[in-house]
């Protein structure tokens, strides 16, 4: 296998691995926001409905405030309405699905690249296989939702930390992940990367 092709496959493998982590992180982040907002809206809606039909004397005991109970219920209803508009506009569920598809696509190309790294094919057959994989890789990049530039450094940090923790767990499987993260933070931030 030509060294230039091997280097390109290795580069594409590393980038794909990074993008799997980035898209998976964004998928989970947006799914969490969607679920949290759903729960807040459902609980808030139920409470507003309950306080609407509650006896004002009981509501005054439950909501000790200088504002009248109808005003509190009205403000809560407006808050719920605004939160539902924000949720609809942000479309966290849709963004999560797009990042899920991108993560799956990059994971599949990562597996293909891993097989290509171990391939015993030579010459024209290897170049042909590489060309097919490269075209697939570039197609995924063109068709997938992009990782926002402003989030990329943090997502790369998450990926690199994941790799470091994984390597440490290979050596010490019983180690605390939280303590490993603190150890790496201390090493890289306080000691300046000195082991």
Q: What is the element layout, followed by pairings?
A:
Layout: H1 3-53, H2 56-62, H3 69-90, H4 92-117, H5 123-143, H6 152-171, H7 177-190
Helix pairs in contact: 1-3, 1-4, 1-6, 4-5, 6-7
Description of the structure:
With 195 residues, the chain is mostly helical. The protein contains seven helices and no strands. The chain has helices spanning 3-53, 56-62, 69-90, 92-117, 123-143, 152-171, 177-190. The model has no long low-confidence stretch (mean pLDDT 90).
Instruction: Enumerate the spans where pLDDT stays under 50 for 5 or more consecutive residues.
Output: none
Q: Order of SSEs, N→C? A: HHHHHHH
3D shape: elongated
- Give a short account of the largest sheet: none
Summarize the amount of helix as a percent range: over 70%
Category by helix and strand content: mainly alpha
Annotation, overall tally of beta strands: 0
The value of Rg in angstroms is 25 Å
How many structural units, i.e. domains? 2
